[in-house]
Design brief:
This protein is an alpha/beta fold. It is built from 13 helices and eight strands. Helices cover 43% and strands 11% of the residues.
């Protein structure tokens, strides 16, 4: 198959819109009730009902934020996504947060869903990052088409690009993409080609110490843990499949690392590096 045929095949993803809709429906049905245990309960340090922001405005990725909350990448490419992203973007501006868009794959070759992602006017000057999967990045590099991602970031007026690493999700997805190279090598190539900041994230399994160590050695803007214990996209993919497949592979979808574990790993790695 020649390069033009490869590119054409990557343009055509007839299941994408329905898949994104399935993700939204299943996420609503699969809400988790886990309590974040990383923070202490300190009842003596603020007034009841106080609206005071105790940490004040701060700089993150070159932008000012009022609250240390990041709306991690959610959705796009289906008819519901525009409303969801618009509502999230309005909240980001009102409360001074940061936002990562859902996978922008559908914008690489077609602008049909552009308005689902076109939220810069809604977030104002808050941090806003576009998002592509590692498989799409590898394909773009193989086809010498990385300029498509660069132009997409510019058109969205995004501050940079999030690259999501999702091998377990892709393995569980009936239409899942394969990638041939270790993601860390693909990320290095991207860093050599782009001038805007890059964030790397998982999609619900988190990352172990060797992966975090490899990322910390790169000039990344940030690492989004996307740890185990929240929305689990590998599990959502299984819920789209038949019952036998679900029963066989469901235990595998709980492999991963929780946020508390990843914070400890990260801090140990930083301490070991002497910074």
């Amino acid at each position: 198959m020649n390069s033009k045929e490869n590119i054409q095949n990557r343009k055509e993803d007839p299941t994408a819109a329905q898949r994104k809709k399935d993700h939204i429906e299943l996420a609503f049905q699969s809400q988790v009730s886990a309590i974040d245990e990383r923070f202490y309960y300190e009842p003596l340090l603020s007034g009841l009902g106080s609206k005071q922001n105790n940490w004040g405005a701060f700089q993150f990725l070159g932008k000012e934020m009022k609250n240390p909350l990041w709306v991690s990448s959610m959705t796009g490419g289906t008819e519901w996504a525009g409303t969801i992203n618009a509502n999230l973007a309005k909240a980001v501006k009102e409360f001074g947060l940061g936002m990562g868009l859902g996978s922008c794959r559908s914008l690489l070759y077609d602008d049909a869903y552009f308005e689902d992602f076109n939220v810069r006017k809604l977030v104002g000057d808050q941090p806003l990052y576009a998002n592509l999967g590692i498989a799409q990045i590898e394909h773009l590099l193989d086809d010498h088409q990385m300029n498509r991602a660069i132009e997409m970031v510019k058109k969205l007026e995004a501050d940079g690009l999030i690259i999501h690493i999702n091998p377990l999700q892709e393995a569980m997805q009936p239409e899942g993409d394969n990638y041939q190279n270790p993601p860390i090598e693909t990320i290095k190539k991207v860093l050599d080609l782009v001038s805007f900041p890059i964030i790397v994230k998982e999609v619900g399994q988190g990352m172990g110490p060797e992966s975090l160590d490899a990322l910390l050695r790169l000039p990344l803007a940030a690492v989004d843990f996307a740890a185990s214990g929240g929305t689990n996209f590998a599990l959502l993919e299984l819920l789209r499949d038949d019952k036998d497949v679900m029963e066989a592979f469901e235990p595998i979808t709980h492999i991963g690392h929780k946020a508390e574990e990843m914070v400890e790993i990260f801090n140990n790695l930083k301490a070991g590096a002497g910074s």
